[in-house]
Amino acid sequence: MxxxxxxxxxxxxxxxxxxxxxxxxxxxxxxxxxDWTWVVTDDGPGDSSFRxxxxxxxxxxxxxxxxxxxxRLAIDVPGEVSYVQGAEAGIRITGPKDIVDSIRFNDGxxxxxxxxxxxxxxxxxxxxxxxxxxxxxxxxxxxTAPAVKTFEMGDNGSVRVxxxxxxxxxxxxxxxxxxDVDGRTDKVSVTINGDGDADLDDLQVAEATVAVLGRGDxxxxxxxxxxxxxxxxxxxxxxxxxxxxxxxxxxxxxxxID
Length: 258
Known about the structure:
Layout: H1 2-19, H2 23-33, E1 36-42, E2 50-54, E3 60-65, E4 72-75, E5 80-85, E6 90-96, H3 97-102, E7 103-106, E8 109-112, E9 121-126, E10 129-134, E11 140-145, E12 150-153, E13 158-165, E14 168-175, E15 178-194, E16 197-214, E17 217-232, E18 235-238, E19 244-251, E20 254-257
Parallel strand pairs: 4-8, 4-12, 5-11, 5-13, 12-14, 13-15, 14-15, 15-16, 16-17, 17-18, 17-19, 18-20
Antiparallel strand pairs: 1-2, 1-9, 3-6, 6-11, 7-8, 9-10
């Protein structure tokens, strides 16, 4: 939401300001010499208004969370999350202080404590132009563990999985969750409830089971077998031509073979 406020309201406000006769002449020299930064903050849950005021960008910090590892990882936080398969388990978080401090990890699940001031947005006006971003876009999380086999994404969850190498892989996407995987496995199971996006094009896999309820998109390339069930407008693209394809489609979904 804060991103939409930035783009639609904040930038529009500044562009309107520039359009006022003489405005740029008054502030142009100062903008070229010093950055002008505005902070955009939601007033509260259920309130469509927001605060818009001059301010400074919050500094980034780093934080480490200990984790013994497990076979399941659930992600329900914004930002960029990466999973690395490695022997030494742990979680490294980098980003604006308030956002980093709000991250919690319990029972294999990453979440963020809700707060009106979390995910502030910034609009910076410099001599080179106007730039807008939200604090959550600056959040970076790297999760390392030896043997995660199930990845579950909440509505805001998104993860990049690199170098995956396990016998099985299970992916569960809720809402707008997203996942991008490269590596290898024997069997993969993908379940999407909503508008999720699963890009498994770079995953070497023999068998794939895919279930899409909603408008989700899946790209996967099994070599031996694909079992596909679509209810709604989901799209499944098979990036390889498996020996056997079984499909059930209810609605306007599609199965394509690249």
